[in-house]
Amino acid sequence: MSVAKVNEEKVKVGFKTRLILVEQSNLDTPEEDSEAIAKCFQITRRYAEFSGAVMVLHEKFPLEGVDGLMLQLQDEVEKVILKMAAVFHNRKDQLIFLINNYDMMLSVLSVS
Description:
Blueprint: H1 3-23, H2 34-60, H3 66-85, H4 91-111
Domain Vps52 C-terminal: 38-110
Protein name: Vacuolar protein sorting-associated protein 52
GO cellular component, one term: GARP complex
């Protein structure tokens, strides 16, 4: 097995691991729980850092299937963010939460 093939498999395993972690993140809280909100920020920050790293690698060493895996991961992270925003009863608080998460992701990705 070539080095490129081994690296491709490692990237795919990394994606699948992150997908599972995001899917299984237990953020179901009936109230505005600061610990769950902090956990959501951690998920979105790690997603942004991982996505930025993968985008840089993918530009230099294109890997088959990475685009599809990135879309899956993006969908799962978006579901988590929207689910957590729904915890807030006030629409203004929901929007602030969403804006803060997306702003943080954009800030991290712009550094990549």
